[in-house]
Design brief:
Layout lengths: L1 E2 L24 E2 L52 E6 L1 E3 L8 E3 H13 L7 H8 L9 E8 L2 H14 L4 E4 L13 H9 L3 E4 L7 H8 L3 H23 L5 E3 L7 H9 L5 E3 L18 E2 L8 H7 L29 E3 L5 E2 L6 E4 L12 E4 L3 E3 L2 E3 L4 E4 L9 E9 L6 E10 L1 H5 L9
Parallel strand pairs: 3-6, 3-11, 4-5, 6-7, 7-8, 9-10, 13-20
Antiparallel strand pairs: 1-2, 12-14, 14-18, 15-16, 15-19, 17-18, 19-20
Helix pairs in contact: 1-3
The structure holds zinc ion.
Length: 441
């Protein structure tokens, strides 16, 4: 079985708050079965979302706000923060796979949410907030599960019900009734009847190389294929289960500006979800809502803590900004923040141009972006607000073989800075003796 790669850690860092980014990406892609499934007639329409009643000790429940004439006057807290958690597969055994989490480990997460009195809201509630129809508690948590593994019904669902936490299940067409460890139609119907929200996760669960291969050359074919991945998956789930599907989770977290645009304008989704591990607010682009992938083999619960520690102290989050780890499927995950020279790279130029691509971070306060280098303090780096590129070239040669760089920035509406720091090396020997003949300066 394949697994989407996950981004991960690289640098050192310390970062504040909330929207760090970074990432993680992936979903596992089970062996997909062929498409062309016969679509079952619509089941009895499940129109209203069944809200799972919280148990007696459940996290605080939010009062339903009236959706009437007063709605326009409803004051929406736009600065409210929501962290979306993204799980995949579950096991009763030990997990050595980042996309599979032991069910007792999962239970500890839910217990931690309850202990911290962090409200878990439903997708409907979240969307109503984004439409300006209903407020949400600040902060809030939302739980999502990708792909459609059988273990969701067998293991995770009972625990979620026990806690009374709503969640959204993102399914991709080719894995519904996919055999083996895939959820069946009957099992999915049971979950829907018990209040689970269903979202789309494409038809075939493509990965970046799939997009690139198909995008090569034949534009019309690529467009048709892309269109089908978004449109057909939605239609399939709606018809098969008699529900409305208004949300989409990008497989592997991969998306392009085109997908984000068409997702809403052409393909009929109200919200689309990435796996950029950032907390979201009312201003987050609706087609780029971040989620924290929770890795089953992370005994330190780094992402879970980053997602749920609203008090700050996001020390680990900035570490992930540089990404780049290769998943089991061989796909290196793109970093959220691209730096050059890269972390731990060795360069020969003693006056290297240092560039930091912050284009994937939205809502940066342009006046907050600064670069520091140990021994130099703040350096006069140039930040282009439009392209979100930060560039600096040292005025004189760097004398140390190890060069540290720290970039600090503030997101609009946040109270703390995000910090990305990394180091690279200068090969002084190569600098002084650039040729094998080793002629010195
Ligand atoms: Zn997936």
């Amino acid at each position: 079985m394949k697994q989407c790669g996950q981004w991960s850690t690289v640098v050192a860092l310390a970062a504040a708050v909330v929207m760090g980014v970074a990432g993680a990406a992936g979903c596992r892609r089970p062996g997909a079965r062929p498409t062309g499934v016969v679509v079952a007639p619509p089941a009895a329409a499940v129109e209203e979302e069944v809200v799972v009643e919280p148990g007696p000790s459940a996290a605080p429940v939010v009062e339903e706000a009236p959706l009437n004439a007063q709605a326009a006057e409803l004051k929406i807290k736009k600065s409210a923060q929501v962290s979306l958690l993204c799980y995949h597969d579950f096991t009763i055994g030990k997990s050595n796979n980042p996309m599979v989490i032991n069910i007792e480990h999962f239970r500890r997460h839910l217990q931690a949410l309850r202990d911290a009195r962090l409200p878990v809201i439903s997708m409907d509630h979240y969307l109503a907030w984004r439409r300006g129809e209903r407020d949400i508690p600040d902060p809030s948590i939302m739980i999502t599960i990708d792909d459609g593994w059988k273990s969701v019904g067998k293991l995770a669902h009972p625990v979620l019900r026990e806690f009374g936490f709503p969640y959204t299940l993102f399914l991709y067409k080719n894995y519904v009734d996919g055999g083996g460890r895939a959820l069946t139609t009957a099992e999915i119907k049971t979950l829907i009847a018990e209040g689970v929200t269903i979202g789309s996760h494409s038809v075939s669960h493509p990965y970046p190389p799939d997009y690139r291969r198909r995008a090569k050359g034949v534009t019309a074919e690529y467009e048709a294929w892309l269109d089908a991945e978004f449109r057909e998956s939605k239609a399939f789930l709606e018809q098969k289960f008699g529900i409305q599907v208004t949300t989409y989770a990008y497989p592997g977290g991969y998306y392009t500006p085109e997908m984000a645009k068409k997702g809403v304008s052409d393909w009929g989704y109200e919200a689309l979800f990435t796996v950029n591990p950032v907390r979201t607010s009312w201003d987050t682009p609706i087609a780029e809502v971040g989620r924290f992938i929770i890795f089953g083999n992370d005994v330190n619960d780094r992402n879970f803590k980053a997602a749920t520690n609203f008090g700050g102290g996001q020390e680990d989050l900035g570490r992930q900004l540089l990404g780049g780890e290769v998943g089991d499927d061989g796909v290196p995950q793109p970093p959220v923040v691209v730096v050059k020279p890269a972390e731990n790279e060795t360069v020969t130029d003693r006056r290297p141009q240092i560039t930091v691509d912050l284009s994937k971070l939205s809502d940066i306060d342009p006046t907050s972006v600064i670069m520091r280098m140990p021994g130099f303090g703040e350096v006069p780096a140039t930040y282009n607000e439009d392209t979100r590129q930060l560039v600096y070239r040292p005025a004189s040669v760097l004398r140390s073989p190890e060069v540290g760089v720290q970039v600090r920035l503030r997101r609009v509406g946040q109270e703390k800075d995000d910090i990305v720091s990394w180091k690279f090396f200068i090969d002084q020997k190569a600098y002084y003796f650039p040729k094998s003949t080793a002629s010195s300066e």
